[in-house]
Design goal:
It is built from 14 helices and 16 strands. It folds into 3 domains: 11-128, no CATH class; 158-202 and 292-409, 3-Layer(aba) Sandwich (Rossmann fold), CATH 3.40.50.1000; 205-286. Helix 2 (41-58) runs antiparallel to helix 3, helix 5 (211-220) packs across helix 8 (269-281) and helix 6 (230-240) runs antiparallel to helix 7 (251-264). The chain is globular, with a radius of gyration of 27 Å. It starts with 15 loop residues before the first helix and ends in a 7-residue tail after the last helix. It has helices spanning 16-26, 41-58, 65-79, 124-128, 211-220, 230-240, 251-264, 269-281, 295-304, 319-325, 336-339, 346-356, 370-379, 406-409; strands spanning 86-89, 97-99, 105-107, 112-115, 158-163, 166-171, 182-184, 189-191, 193-196, 203-205, 289-291, 308-313, 332-335, 363-367, 383-387, 399-400. By secondary structure, it is of the alpha/beta class.
Length: 416
């Protein structure tokens, strides 16, 4: 049946409050019980979760893989937790609601779907989408003769429990083979766990922690910094960085480090401490750090080999929140702020090993610092592998330029 809408004005042409009122009235009128022949939201979510990685590959990996993985995980978990199923409109926006004579407003092109009401409640799209977004790339429609793929199972949930400065992430659904030992080819040893450093091993500071942050904060105080001097100033601050003589965690050391960069960029010493405090706040925000693209797939391979995983880091931020934000699948979290001592002190490594329940000879440390990660771990009897992303240490024998080579370096069989 066709019906002409007169005058056919779109709801998007109305003000935001008016559009919202119309949608609030229209939506419940379409929430009726329905079944065949309509697709279900669960079917669509399963298809989307399979199709998104393919679209990501076809786009040239235009965004970070972790964002794709987060979207897929959300599709799987939310689909399984739906409430009452009703008829939905999966293409509701202001350009698909027209003024008419039979009714003040009529929905067009509804793209019906059966699922929970909340999915249809995205009324805010009508307020921001005054016209179709040019160049917007939608998921391709599923051919009529292709059935939706079975919904993949969701990942096990985890919860975080702190124990004497060591974060132990207990799996609610334990892998029955988690305690298997992996024979490491050619070494005559068994491998049960891998410990990772965090900064510049698993992640790097994002744009929010760059020279521009120093400049923005200085500008609030009426100071102009030379962002072109940032790299030189930071390198000088690194050279001057001194650890506590007893390797105690001392945040004043990092505060002075930030001050020196500020001064090296042309900032006055009189404001260095105040500005450094504001700058350091950005280091506590997990989203200001970007995972390297090799991190999540390699962690998945280690899990597939039944290895336990820990992160061990020197730093001033909450590492438990960081791990949760980036969805890192690890068993143990040890940071110097909670532990009280920094790498290369042997106790910080031992704390992680104790929480994992493994001996030094059954674990490998992976990190980017020769002194903190490699020498510190080896002093305790652990094997250690340097991650040299900048290729500064070609003389080191056990060295990787990225994490993709880690499973092979550990002697693990490649997944088929």
């Amino acid at each position: 049946m066709l019906e002409r809408c007169e005058p056919g004005t779109t709801l998007a042409e109305n003000g935001g409050e008016r559009a919202l009122d119309v949608l609030v009235e229209l939506l419940p009128r379409h929430w009726v019980e329905a079944g065949e022949p309509f697709h279900t939201l669960a079917d669509e979510a399963a298809w989307w979760s399979d199709d998104l990685p393919e679209q990501w590959e076809q786009s040239g990996r235009s965004i970070e893989r972790r964002l794709v993985d987060a979207a897929v995980d959300a599709l799987r978990s939310l689909s399984a937790s739906q409430g009452e199923q009703v008829l939905l409109n999966q293409d509701l926006h202001g350009d698909n609601v027209l003024a008419a004579e039979r009714e003040p407003w009529l929905l067009i092109d509804p793209k019906p779907l059966v699922g929970e009401r909340e999915f249809a409640g995205r009324a805010d799209r009508a307020l921001v989408r005054a016209r179709p977004l040019e160049g917007r790339r939608a998921l391709p429609p599923r051919p009529a003769d292709v059935r939706a793929r079975p919904r993949p199972g969701a990942r096990p949930r985890v919860d975080d429990r702190a124990d004497d400065g060591v974060g132990v992430r207990q799996r609610l659904q334990r892998d029955a083979h988690r305690d298997r030992q992996v024979a490491v080819g050619g070494r005559g040893v068994t491998l049960r766990a891998v410990l990772f450093d965090v900064d510049f091993t698993l992640c790097r500071p994002g744009p929010e922690l760059s020279a521009e942050r120093y400049a923005r904060i200085a500008a609030r105080h009426g100071i102009t910094l030379d962002t072109g001097r940032y790299d030189e100033a930071r390198e000088a601050a690194v050279q001057n960085l001194k650890r506590h003589p007893e390797l105690l965690h001392d945040e004043t050391i990092w505060h002075r480090f930030t001050e020196e960069i500020f001064i090296g960029m042309g900032g006055p010493e009189s404001l260095a401490s105040e500005c450094a405090t504001e700058i350091e706040e950005g280091w506590g925000v997990s989203e200001n750090f970007e995972l390297y693209e090799d991190v999540l797939p390699v962690l998945d391979e280690l899990r597939a080999a039944s290895l336990r995983i820990a992160v061990v880091s020197n730093g001033i931020r909450d590492l438990t929140e960081f791990v949760a934000h980036h969805a890192l699948d690890v068993d143990v979290i040890v940071d110097s702020r909670s532990h009280g001592r920094v790498k290369p002190h042997p106790t910080i490594f031992q704390a992680a090993l104790n929480a994992l329940g493994v001996a030094p000879g059954d674990a490998v440390m992976v990190g980017d610092s020769l002194e903190e990660d490699i020498e510190g771990a080896r002093a305790l009897g652990m094997r250690a592998i340097l991650v040299d992303r900048e290729e500064r240490h070609p003389e080191i024998e056990e060295r990787l330029t990225d994490l993709y080579g880690l499973p092979a370096a550990l002697g693990l069989a490649r997944p088929r």
